[in-house]
Amino acid sequence: LLTIRADRDNYYYGYDDLFTRHPEVIQRLCADAATLLWPLLDGLIWRSRVAVAGQRRVNYYVKHLMQDGEGKVNKAMEWLAENKDPKIICHPAVVMFSDVFWGQLANKYFLIGRLYFLFMLVVFLASQSILQNHDEIEKETEEQNIAIFACRLIIYLGSLTRLIFQQIKFCFTDCQEGAMTKVIGFLPVPNYLFSFQQFGSLVLTICLVLMLALEPIVHCISAETEKLFSPYCNASEDIIYAYSILSAVAMLLYWLLLTDLTVFSMRFSAFLLVIGRVASEVGLFLGALIYLIAAFSGAISSLKQNLSDFAGMHWSALSLWEIALGIYPSSHFSSVIQTEFVMIAVSLFVIMIAIFLLNLLIAQLNGAYQVVYEDMVGYARLNRAQIIVTTLEQVSQKRWFHFLQNQKFEERLEFGEGDIGLPGGLQVTEPANANPTTVDSIRRFGGSTSRTMPWPEEANLDGGDDDKFERLEKLIVRATKNMGAP
Length: 486
What we know:
This protein has helices at residues 15-21, 25-32, 37-42, 63-66, 76-83, 92-130, 142-177, 196-213, 216-221, 240-257, 266-301, 313-325, 333-338, 340-373, 376-392, 397-407, 465-484, and strands spanning 5-6, 11-12, 45-52, 55-60, 180-183, 187-190, 414-416, 419-420, 426-431, 443-444. The longest helix is centred in the N-terminal third of the chain and has 39 residues, at 92-130. The protein is mainly alpha-helical. It is 59% helix and 8% strand.
């Protein structure tokens, strides 16, 4: 079906018939025969065997991967993203149409949304870190308080309301479609929360709601303060510390959620995804560290000793944590040395952490990186594919049809100078040494071009040279057996 054939008048290609008869062929292959995806996508690419000025002409017939039979967005990208195969997403045909989607359509809509989020981060940073100064309360000015109040009002109205709307929308959609996953065997959780971005958005929403409830400026409005919109009064004394903790957590979440801007660069995106993939190894290390701290702090607390740093299990655990991080005061080690069994326990703890666990962590990180490195660009492209799918849902119908018109799928692509070929694709050039091609992939036939005539028998229908060598091998084996017969 995906072999291009030609006579002296026409080209014949089963590409349109395949996707017209089976529009869901990508979905079916992803689910039932993933190994056939690669040859299917290979059949959508034609490369010229002639290079001109070091460049080779390449036709990508990706029309039916970008639009469906009704002219709407095809779900091929969504199916490939759900397949989560880092190798197939790097196939040249997939890279071609996904880059067209991203470069000409999706990146603009995505960037607009991220610029809005970036603006909210700047406003939040100004209200919580730049304008706010907890150490110089007496130096606050009324103008400064008004600016802080305005910034926080923008955050609560512009960011919090938008986040709440998005969470309600995603939750309602998953509940309506039954896209729920049971956690701990009985607790149903909407599938959208298994995305880092969406889960982080939910936590950020909760933080902002709690910040609004504890807002010191609101609590001090009814109190008599010397300056307008001052956050410092008797009513806010008990809540301002909790508010500052929530503010710090929200600040970190804003910066973390902004990391998806790395999708504009495959290199940065791949690096960030590698960090996420190997983070589990750090988690294992921290788990082992906490286990050892609990064990040794319990053992040291049971000893008869008068050290203030190890007076009780909680102080022992804190001191061991400081020792593990290298921030334990060196002057305190003199008192540890004076107590023999405490010194032995601390020495064993340091040996297990510094010599064993840290070196094991380095080995695990190295091994995990080697495994992920080969596919890190594929994982980065999968991440971009998911963003493309989400962003294309926001594109208006008018903008989509304008995008399709610019692709000019109805125009026939040339196979060579003056050799007008088939429509439904995109033509680019690539370096001649990128994919060396010495044989024309188009099967051309001479003779009559009448449609009533049967198709000529192909010259290599017997399988080509491989079949000839196989028949020759069988003939030699048969002859050898006959020679050895009595």
